[in-house]
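User: Teach me something about this protein's shape.
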Amino acid sequence: MSKKETLIIGRQPLVEALQSGRVIDKILLQKNASGEVLSHIRALSKEFDVPMQMVPVEKLNYMTKANHQGVIALAALVVYKELDEVLEEITEKGETPLFIMLDGITDVRNIGAIARSAYCCGAQAIIIPDKGVGLLNEEAMKSSAGALDHIHIIRVNSLIKAVDSLREKGVLVYTSEMKAEKKIYELPLTDGCCIIMGNEEKGVQPYLAKAADAFFSIPMATKFDSFNVSVAAGIVLYEALKQRMG
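Assistant: First, the predicted structure itself:
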């Protein structure tokens, strides 16, 4: 799919796309734009939980030379699922949940690489927030080598609510912490679990980390900074695969 094909340009085309059920990653709305149709778009964005961002007109003009009428939407390249729906499907298959949750990871190449490792290691789903994470665009797809087409993508409007829902269903939640005493290989990854991977600079947000069942660290041979987040995710996922293979 080309870049142009991922854009929905103009007010009425966007209304029709939303009403038809087309999955949208994000709506970019020109600051100070007004009109009845835009009010309708705002209402639809809330109804379908589509993130909306206010941007200067220069950004929209950069994205297209067409008459955008103050609004451009980015069509999703993946189908988003509901958390309960995926958990139910996995349970019916007799599988043990292995999820990855992405907190503040904006580099789409890292997201693609994480998806590739997740699929290869048997994880069933990736949980992302509707804001503050890189878009699952063509570059993410390419970096994932197509894995994003084969793994469930769950988009939620609150990561902490997702953590609460997981724990209610008996899924343990773990997060990395460089100074944690417990090592990744000491976690019971054969149990249903979700691993939170955070931003490389800021880590997992404190309120999310506080809600986790346990912290873990990944041993390193040197005192160098840390692993790249996609590499760290791959190490964690492979440890889960190793444990589950017995």
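Now, about its shape. Residues 98 and 123 are 5 Å apart (CA to CA). The radius of gyration is 19 Å. If you'd like, I can walk through any region in more detail.
User: That's plenty for now, thanks!
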